[in-house]
Design a protein that fits this description.
alpha/beta; 14 strands; binds adenosine monophosphate
């Protein structure tokens, strides 16, 4: 399979060639034709599957030469917003299309300026988008395509209300795409609300990480985790690892410990401001630091290429987070390692993860660190979210018009047909619209 056989424009193919993309990933092979055909889409795809290009390429193609139309990509975090916008700009480098990211935590002024210079594809976090709508800097009437990227994450971060408010501001005719790594019940309900006769695609078996990731658990007493981590780093010569901890305080303490042992480590957590986070990430990418110690919230949306190793210093409370965490390694088919240091207190969390994965992680004790408090043996139970549940959410409802959580059900089938002309520009305010 090649990008040309997917019907992509030569300008996009050229950009992909320059970026070194030789062939589409499985999610791209499935998503690109469906999106080009105008279908709503429900995609099960984890970070690392190539999901960004899977929606960005066909959307850019549909926007090419259509400057009165625009696309909106909603993402959970500012890091992901920047990352998606950067990827879109790279794909669009031979097209006359502008991609802009807007997200909270930075002043509005720069983002308003970027929007006023023209925007065809807008990548936004929900809160900042609502700010811009409330201030009448943007309206969404020209949006023809909307993507919910990492939908499960957006809900986990508490964006359900914001998403409903945005749905109310979107034109009925929009093509809607939902990408999610996992499908807990709230995500299935969101898909049911947002999508209309969606095509359902899945790149990897749901809730399972890419197969090339080697994962195992190391049973250890809680107090000995820092020593064990240090031992494993030195013993294996591990470099460039993302280490997950459960709290900001834990991240700072672990970084202090590691630095005391002359390991170049830094922390990434929600209490560091945007500039500090940017600097830490840059230092990690440039290999000036070896270990990035992160909380789940801070790590969302991180795109660090060729990350060989993820270490779960603490197990996540939500089993889905385990899948997200280890999705940071083994990207685009590369081999990766995900190792979890597990103490007896975390037995229930480990059992939850194994239920979700539907497999038992092997336990491999490290000599000299054998735990005094043993992990109880656990056997995986069947998945609680069978694939058919998602199918039912999408296909199993009556053949009535599309749903939108905050709009009258008749709106979509009434005077504004799905492919009708937009009535306005992507953003208004100050009289300066799309700048094109
Ligand atoms: P994503 O899942 O969108 O975060 O993408 C993960 C990584 O894979 C990013 O670094 C992309 O640049 C890269 N990537 C996406 N599609 C391809 C492809 N077809 N060939 C090679 N690399 C790709």
């Amino acid at each position: 399979m090649s990008f040309s056989s997917l019907g992509l424009l030569p300008a996009l193919q050229q950009a992909l060639h320059e970026l070194g993309y030789r062939q589409p990933t499985p999610i791209q092979t499935q998503a690109i034709p469906a999106i080009l055909a105008g279908r709503d889409l429900l995609a099960s795809a984890a970070t690392g599957s190539g999901k960004t290009a899977a929606f960005a390429l066909p959307l850019l193609q549909r926007l090419a030469g259509q400057h009165e139309r625009a696309a909106l990509v909603l993402v959970p975090t500012r890091e992901l917003a920047e990352q998606v916008a950067t990827a879109c700009q790279a794909y669009a480098r031979h097209l006359d299309l502008a991609c802009v990211a807007v997200y909270g935590g930075v002043p509005l002024a720069g983002q308003i300026e970027a929007l006023n210079a023209g925007c065809d594809l807008l990548v936004a976090t929900p809160g900042r988008l609502l700010d811009l709508l409330a201030n009448e800097i943007l309206d969404l009437s020209a949006i023809d395509h909307v993507v919910l990227d990492e939908a499960d994450r957006m809900l986990a971060l508490g964006f359900a209300r914001e998403l409903a408010a945005i749905a109310a501001a979107l034109p009925e005719r929009c093509q809607r795409l939902l990408f999610s790594a996992t499908f807990p019940p709230a995500t299935r309900r969101l898909a049911d609300d947002w999508l209309y006769e969606a095509q359902e695609i899945s790149a990897t078996p749901r809730n399972r990480p890419a197969p090339k990731i080697k994962q195992w658990a190391v049973p250890v007493d809680k107090k000995r985790k820092p020593g064990l981590l240090l031992f494993m780093l030195r013993d294996r010569g591990w470099r460039q690892a993302l280490v997950f901890v459960k709290s900001r305080k834990g991240a700072d303490e672990l970084v202090a410990y590691l630095r005391g042992k002359e390991i170049a480590a830094d922390a990434l957590h929600g209490e560091r401001d945007q500039e500090e986070r940017r600097q830490v990430l840059a230092a990690f990418r440039e290999r000036r630091i070896d270990l990035l110690v992160a909380t789940d919230v801070a790590a969302r949306g991180l795109d660090i290429d060729e990350l060989p190793l993820v270490i779960n210093f603490d197990l996540p409370v939500a089993a889905e987070d385990y899948v997200h965490r280890i999705g940071r390694t083994g990207r685009a088919g590369a081999a990766g390692i995900a190792v979890s240091l597990v103490c007896a207190d975390e037995a229930a969390q480990l059992a939850g993860i194994e239920r979700l994965l539907q497999k038992r992680l092997s336990r491999e004790e490290e000599p000299g660190f054998e735990p005094r408090h043993q992990l109880p043996p656990a056997s995986p139970a069947p998945s609680t979210t069978p694939h058919s549940a998602i199918k039912k959410a999408i296909h199993g409802r009556p053949a009535s018009p599309a749903k939108n959580p905050s709009q009258p059900k008749t709106a979509r089938s009434g005077s504004s047909p799905r492919n009708g002309k937009p009535t306005g520009a992507a953003h208004s305010g100050g009289g300066h619209k799309r700048g094109r």
